[in-house]
Structure formats: structure tokens, C-alpha cells
Amino acid sequence: MLKVFILLKLFLLLGGCTYQYTNEYNVDIEDIKKIKLNVKSFEINKDNLDIITTENLLQNEINKKVLNQLEAWTLQKFAIEGIENKAFLNLLKIDTSVTEKKKNKKSIFLIIQQDKEVYKISLNFDLSINTNDSLIKTLKITSSVDFELLNKYSITQRNKVIIYNINKLIKLIDEKITFQLHNKTFYKFMVM
Q1: Under 8 Å CB-to-CB from 16, ≥6 apart: which residues?
Q2: Where are the domains of the chain?
């Protein structure tokens, strides 16, 4: 009986190791290269924003965190240095949904059943630049990321996983928008 107890404790100790989330997708790092836009004003427009609200409080919390991180990224990413033109970041949709619920089979070695849910965060917005001669250039950005949350996670672990994946999403968006703005179409709206 003592051997079984010791073996069980050893198994729980070894099974308690979890994935370490690094700061690879931390928005505060210097990897976000500032883009200087040749515009007089820059506005974040939330009028058309479709935040999908559900009865699931966690999904609503994730949506709010995505919105806050996107606003922080926008302030860090763009600088205005022009005397004409206007830029608008139109937020269109933020959606967090549960795509899958998995229940692991119980076995002899599992004392607690570990369920996991797979979440998908989707973000959709566009960047419009209006010139004084009524020309409008629009860059549409859509991105999403999938991640898993286990029911055994503590609140702190869960928040770390959520923040890590939100930052991963913001980093993907950052790469997309940097690539697209260096395209010939938007090149004249950038200050070098």
C-alpha cells in the first residue's frame, strides 16, 4: 500500500509539469517596429465593431482583452507625421468561440479526468487612409489563433495561456500589416 501511495505521488509530481509559455509573443518587446504614417490624424473607430457576446464569461473576458491589446498595439505601432490625409482603424469583429470540447478517457493512472476546450479567437479590422482628394485606400486584415485550455488550469495558468495567445494573435497581425503597408499601394502614405 505504501509503494502504491509513493508511486501515485511520483506520478502526480511528474504529471504536474506543464508547458512553459515564453515571452516570444509579448507585445511590449521592441520587435514591433513603429510605422510613420503620412497622415494628419489617426482614429480608432469602434462604431461598427461586432463583439460577439455569449453567456460564457470567459469568452467575453477574452474579447475584452483582445480589444485592449489591439488598442495598445495600435498606439505602439503607428506614428503620425503628416500635414494632410486621415487614417482610420475600423474594428469590425472580435469573436472568441469554443470550437471543440474534448473529454479524455479515464484510465488507471488518471485520478482526475482532464477535459479540455479548444478556443478560436478571430479578429477582423481594416485600415483606411483618406486623402484630401477623396481617394480612399483600405487594407483589410483578418487573423485568428486556436488554443487549448485544460480544466485543471488554475486561474493564473489560464490567464497566462490566454494572454500568450492574444499576444500571438497581435504579433501575427503586426507581421501582416507591416508586410502590406510596404506594398506599392500604401508606400506613398508612409514616412521614411
Answers
A1: none
A2: 34-100+114-187
Find where cell 506599392 sits. 184
Please tell me the pTM assigned to this model.
0.78
CA distances from 65 to 96, 155, 159, 178 (A): 11, 15, 10, 22
Cβ contacts of residue 60 below 8 Å, gap of 6+?
Answer: 53, 54, 96
Highest-pLDDT range among 4-8, 18-22, 74-78, 188-192: 74-78
Q: Within 13 Å of residue 48, how many CA atoms lie on the same side as its CB?
A: 10
The whole-angstrom separation of Cα 17 and Cα 56 is: 28
> What are the grid coordinates assigned to 90, written together?
475600423
Neighbours of 80 (CB within 10 A): 16
**Strand pairing report for 86-103 and 115-130:** antiparallel
- Architecture per CATH, domain 34-100+114-187, reads as 2-Layer Sandwich (3.30)
How do residues 159-182 score in pLDDT, each as one tens digit? 999 999 999 999 999 999 999 988
- Residue 148's region, left for phi above 0, alpha for psi from -120 to 50, else beta, is beta
